[in-house]
Design brief:
Order of helices and strands: HEEEEHEEHHHEEHEEEE
Number of helices: 6
Largest sheet: 5 strands, mixed
Strand content: 15-25%
Helix content: 25-40%
Shape: elongated
């Protein structure tokens, strides 16, 4: 006969089941807490180990460039919106610097070689936002910026005035004739060395007397020269030209002429005000500023075989070109390869510190100064459209 359960027993069994359920829940939650706490401990340990590794890497000396330098290209652009076929903009490409020599050990640059003309591809791929880089550019890549408010170029050459006194000119001419004496001829016959030298000296004396105006004038100039020297010994300061001007109203002809001294290097300055309107555009502004700063910096890690820790390698060069859509601008001037010599960023362009929630400044002013690596030569204008360089 089965034993029946009373109402008190039934209530007791229900309470016992409830206690068991609660105990199981507490046990499971305790296991989860223990697991999470263990995970936290492991994560904390991993972070500590990572910090230790970073500190150890900082203490290690540079490897001297045993491997290839990191290269990370892409396209950055401000403003963020897509370009159209009629949009004018400035494209700035990052290119690794190459020495001027045509081959190892060659230190002479051939002006007609065009080594410093733009070498990078004009096409930068897609100009839509989905094609833009989301990380910093290192040793490669392109930056697209709007045409600056001030667009101008200037070409110049180095010239200067030169003076050559008549006496010095006659003396130089005479010395050169003496040097050419072995090859001197008269009436189609080659002169002997003695006769050639004698003729050169005679010609020089004739030119001197003709320029002075006779022996009397020569004696007068000699007296004036001695006078200036005597006055100089007494502490005076007077020249032969001053005596001639005061006494005779004349001076030596300085034979002044403007002469070409050499070419010059062009420099360009640009300024942009950047006011990001959303998070994606703010990210582009940050990456653009970083790309300019990082790629203008001297390199401490040279490529294999290019020296150890005692040497610095030249920073990257920048290739600038004005563009319209997917083609070069048909009018504006061209550039040669440039170094970025100066970058200045004002993060309070509105004269007040204002930032978005993520810390991005509301308005920034970026100023860049470029200088070309090579002068402009006449051969550079061959097969060039627009106004040239």
């Amino acid at each position: 006969m089965a034993m029946g359960l009373g109402s008190a027993d039934t209530i007791f069994i229900k309470e016992l089941n409830e206690k068991n359920k609660n105990a199981n829940k507490k046990s499971n939650s305790t296991k989860v807490i223990e697991k999470k706490s263990n995970e936290r401990i492991e994560v904390k340990s991993t972070v500590t180990e990572s910090k230790k590794k970073i500190e150890e890497n900082k203490k290690k000396p540079p490897t001297g460039g045993t491997g290839r330098r990191k290269v990370k290209g892409g396209v950055l652009r401000y403003p963020y919106e897509a370009l159209t076929a009629n949009t004018d903009y400035l494209q700035i490409d990052i290119v690794e610097y190459k020495p001027v020599g045509q081959k190892p050990g060659d230190l002479i640059s051939n002006p007609s070689s065009g080594n410093r003309r733009l070498t990078s591809s004009a096409a930068v791929g897609s100009t839509r936002p989905r094609g833009l880089s989301k990380s910093a550019l290192i040793n490669a890549g392109s930056i697209l910026l709007p045409i600056p408010n001030s667009v101008q170029d200037g070409n110049s050459v180095d010239v200067g005035s030169s003076k050559l006194g008549n006496a010095a000119a006659v003396a130089a001419s005479t010395v050169r004739d003496v040097m050419d004496a072995p090859d001197m001829e008269k009436d189609g016959k080659k002169l002997s060395y003695f006769d050639a030298v004698s003729q050169s000296l005679t010609t020089g004396m004739d030119k001197f007397q003709q320029g002075i105006g006779g022996g009397g004038k020569a004696a007068d100039l000699l007296k004036k020269q001695l006078t200036t020297q005597a006055v100089g010994l007494a502490g005076g300061n007077i020249t032969v030209d001053q005596l001639l001007a005061r006494e005779n109203g004349e001076v030596f002809n300085p034979n002044m002429e403007l002469l070409f001294n050499g070419p010059t290097l062009r420099g360009f300055k640009f300024s942009w005000k950047m006011m990001p309107r959303n998070s994606k555009e703010a990210e582009q502004c940050k990456l653009i500023i970083r790309a300019f700063k990082e790629n203008m910096a001297p390199k401490t890690k040279a490529a294999a075989g290019q020296g150890g820790t005692w040497f610095l390698k030249s920073p990257n060069v920048f290739e600038l070109r004005y563009r319209t859509g997917n083609s070069d601008h048909p009018f504006l001037h061209k550039f040669k390869q440039c170094f970025l010599t100066d970058i200045s960023v004002n993060y309070t362009a509105e004269a007040s510190h204002m930032t978005y929630g993520d810390g991005t400044p509301v308005s920034m002013q970026m100023d860049l100064s470029f200088k070309e690596l090579e002068p402009i030569y006449d051969v550079d204008y061959e097969d060039i459209e627009g106004v040239g360089y």
